[in-house]
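Researcher: Quick test of sequence recovery. Tokens follow.
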């Protein structure tokens, strides 16, 4: 994997990380609050779902940054093959190559894991 590509991916991941951290801070500041400051139960549920999704993405971003530090970025965590650059350019937190991602979808890698991993 070219060093310039990895550095670009690292910068994108750091930006995504900063966005998610700020998003989580906003959601934790006023969960379920409306514009007038009152509490809305439906809004609270939406905020909880947004918080969970943001935390999942933050976990994936942190894992990708760790792979960069360890020198394993761009390798499939399942088979060890290289993940194509076009895939990493679109999803720099990808953990699986395309064939492994498809296989994991077909065999249904646990509903939580399948929705919490970016392939």
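Model:
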């Amino acid at each position: 994997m070219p060093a310039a590509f990895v550095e670009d991916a690292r910068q994108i991941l750091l930006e995504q990380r900063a966005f998610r951290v700020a998003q989580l801070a906003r959601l934790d500041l006023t969960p379920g609050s409306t514009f007038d400051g009152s509490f809305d139960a439906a809004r609270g549920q939406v905020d909880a779902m947004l918080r969970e999704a943001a935390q999942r993405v933050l976990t994936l971003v942190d894992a990708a940054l760790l792979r960069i530090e360890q020198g394993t970025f761009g390798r499939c965590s399942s088979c060890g093959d290289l993940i194509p650059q076009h895939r990493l350019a679109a999803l720099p937190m990808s953990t699986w190559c395309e064939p492994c991602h498809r296989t994991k979808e077909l065999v249904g890698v646990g509903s939580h894991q399948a929705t919490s991993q970016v392939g």
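The two ends are 18 Å apart (CA to CA).
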